[in-house]
């Protein structure tokens, strides 16, 4: 499939420190791509640039052939759902209200429509969150909150899903379920791009891994190929034999 | 549940009914007994007491209460801090500073208005501009810088007020303290009408944008990733809340507690959706202050108690009861 994102010479600088410089990277629909790398590698910066939240990037970042910063905000968020790592709520929103907020780019009036409700129901069913939908979001466990976040991104309904650590606080069952869901969503024709520290899950579920190190892409390809001995040694500072399930599949 | 018209109808209808009852009953209560039929037929002094003294005062109290509760709700959402109130972001201290300056300079009239009120509006606008300017960096503004700039301007204004108070003579000092206690007086109907138009129009705008306050009360990035221009609405929301606070403060002085407590009580009851909270905060805030002002002018009649004392003394225990009866729910 043709790429939905096309980045060339994409860079980002905080004050005077360059935190990201990518020569050429593309993302496609139908593909679940995991962005991995040690802390401070530029993973979240890349994700937020793709989400249109950092219009001050340098270089080229084309979404469907048009610079990300030139998209209207509403128009972009109908196509691209961005999921932050976590939210801190000061106020008593229910889980369902949080998911409903994902529908904002599709709403014109003050009230929620039956179509919005249907999209929310479907998103909550897929993430197994319906049973606590009326509970205060802040009273949920870390894992439940994260599933609600994923539901909010799904309810937004775009063809691109950008996720920052979507499964950090989940137990094994729900980690597997979320990654399976992400792979399935990609297979249905979405572009799914997730930043994660979990190499195991990423290697097992993603179609592709993009390895960032000091702001540069040092490996990009199928998980087995991307997780070469050199990458494991130089980037993650582990010997391949210490993590044979990643190194050898 | 989804939030549609029918979800709003019950709670908003109840709040509206409460306000109508309060507006109908409170003008009839007071130290002098008033006969409504006689007042309606124009019999003195019933007519004067009801229509010239009490009704405009009750209407002003209701407008002020609605505006303050709404401003408190909005500021809490914008800075994502449930301890914020209409006075947190400095606009009301700026109004007080303007008023105190007018008292110290012995001004009577200013730009064709009573000097104290006009100076209060000028003070509030000055602080508003300063906070907006200080909180913005280029084209961006964050709720955190807004909070910092607002709280600083608030403390600064209060410091200058204390300094001026220190320099004032006995008569001025009394006038300053009276102003800072806050209180509601009967105003001309024309004044009440102008206030009503501006306050209701601002409240209508705040209600129409209720979805945006929901998103901003979660976070600015959260709002932007859902297609909302966070900086723009942070500015507009701050402006709307400041207009409400400044107008009310210019006429009544600072009235504490209500702008903080009404939004909280409603969140405990109805949750965090601003589509429900905005109309309810306005209506219950209006009813609450009209009741408190009636208590303030009757309980020790003919002495009047500052209404801010009553809002705290009536509202405080009620809120503690609400807090105690919430069961296992988190606030």
3D structure, described in words:
The complex is a heterodimer of chains A (249) and B (331). By secondary structure, chain A is an alpha/beta fold. Helices cover 35% and strands 26% of the residues of chain A. Chain A has one domain (3-247): Rossmann fold (3-Layer(aba) Sandwich). Chain A has helices at residues 43-50, 73-79, 95-101, 114-126, 142-156, 172-187, 199-205, 223-226, 229-234, 244-247; strands spanning 3-14, 17-28, 31-36, 58-63, 66-67, 80-83, 160-164, 191-195, 208-213, 216-221. In chain A, strands 6-7-8-3-9-10 form a six-stranded mixed beta sheet, sandwiched between helices. In chain A, a hairpin with a 2-residue loop joins strand 4 (58-63) and strand 5. Chain B is mainly alpha-helical and 331 residues long. Chain B has a single domain (5-324), classed as ABC transporter involved in vitamin B12 uptake, BtuC. In chain B, a hairpin with a 2-residue loop joins strand 1 and strand 2. In chain B, helix 3 (46-79) runs parallel beside helix 8, helix 3 crosses helix 12 (258-270) and helix 5 (115-135) runs antiparallel to helix 11 (230-252). The mean pLDDT of chain B is 89. The A-B interface holds A 51-53, 73-78, 81-82, 84, 87-94, 96-98, 100-102, 104-105, 107, 110-114, 116-117, 120, 134, 136, 138-139, 156 and B 1-5, 76-77, 80-82, 207-208, 210-211, 214-215, 217-219, 221-222, 224-229, 267, 271-273, 275, 329-331.
């Amino acid at each position: 499939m043709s790429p939905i994102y096309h980045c060339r010479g994409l860079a980002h600088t905080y004050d005077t420190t360059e935190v990201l410089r990518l020569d050429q990277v593309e993302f496609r629909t139908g593909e679940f791509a995991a962005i991995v790398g040690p802390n401070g590698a530029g993973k979240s910066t890349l994700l937020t640039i793709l989400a249109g939240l950092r219009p001050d990037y340098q270089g080229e970042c084309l979404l469907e052939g048009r610079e990300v910063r030139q998209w209207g905000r509403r128009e972009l968020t109908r196509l691209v759902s961005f999921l932050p790592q976590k939210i801190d709520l000061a106020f008593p929103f229910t889980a369902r209200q949080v998911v409903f907020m994902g529908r904002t780019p599709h709403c014109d009036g003050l009230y929620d429509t039956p179509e919005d409700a249907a999209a929310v129901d479907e998103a909550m069913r897929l993430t197994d969150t319906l049973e606590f939908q009326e509970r205060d979001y802040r009273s949920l466990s870390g894992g439940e909150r994260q599933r609600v976040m994923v539901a909010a991104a799904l309810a937004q309904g775009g063809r691109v899903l950008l996720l920052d650590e979507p499964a950090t606080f989940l137990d094994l069952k729900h980690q597997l379920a979320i990654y399976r869901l992400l792979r399935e969503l990609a297979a249905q024709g979405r572009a799914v791009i997730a930043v994660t520290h979990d190499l195991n899950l990423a290697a097992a579920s993603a179609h592709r891994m993009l390895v960032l190190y000091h702001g540069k892409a040092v490996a990009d390809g199928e998980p087995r190929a991307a997780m070469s001995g050199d990458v494991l040694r130089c980037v993650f500072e582990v010997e391949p034999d210490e993590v044979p399930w990643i190194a050898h599949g | 549940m989804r939030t549609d018209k029918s979800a709003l109808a019950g709670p908003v209808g109840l709040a509206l009914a409460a306000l109508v009852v309060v507006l109908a009953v409170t003008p009839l209560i007071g130290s002098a007994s008033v006969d409504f039929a006689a007042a309606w037929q124009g019999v003195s002094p019933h007519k004067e007491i009801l229509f010239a003294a009490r009704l405009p005062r009750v209407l002003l109290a209701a407008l002020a209460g609605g505006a303050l509760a709404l401003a408190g709700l909005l500021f809490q959402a914008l800075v994502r801090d449930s301890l914020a109130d209409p006075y947190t972001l400095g606009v009301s201290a700026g109004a007080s500073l303007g008023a105190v300056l007018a008292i110290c300079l012995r001004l009577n009239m200013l730009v064709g208005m009573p000097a104290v009120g006009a100076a209060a509006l000028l003070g509030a606008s000055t602080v508003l501009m300063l906070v907006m300017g200080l909180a913005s960096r280029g084209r961006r503004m964050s709720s955190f810088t807004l909070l910092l700039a607002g709280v600083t301007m608030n403390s600064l204004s209060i410091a200058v007020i204390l300094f001026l108070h220190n320099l004032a003579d006995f008569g001025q000092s009394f006038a300053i303290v009276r102003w800072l206690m806050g209180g509601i007086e009967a105003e001309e109907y024309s004044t009440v009408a102008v206030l009503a138009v501006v306050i209701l129009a601002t409240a209508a705008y705040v209600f129409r944008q209720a979805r945006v306050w929901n998103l901003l009360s979660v976070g600015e990035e959260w709002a932007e990733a859902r297609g909302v221009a966070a900086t723009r609405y942070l500015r507009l929301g701050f402006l709307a809340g400041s207009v409400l606070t400044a107008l009310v403060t210019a006429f009544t002085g600072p009235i504490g507690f209500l702008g903080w407590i009404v939004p909280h009580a409603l969140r405990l009851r109805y949750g965090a959706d601003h589509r429900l909270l905005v109309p309810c905060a306005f209506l219950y805030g209006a009813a609450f202050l009209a009741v408190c002002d009636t208590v303030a002018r009757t309980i020790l009649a003919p002495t009047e108690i500052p209404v801010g004392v009553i809002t705290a003394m009536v509202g405080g225990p009620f809120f503690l009861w609400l807090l105690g009866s919430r069961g296992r729910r988190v606030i």
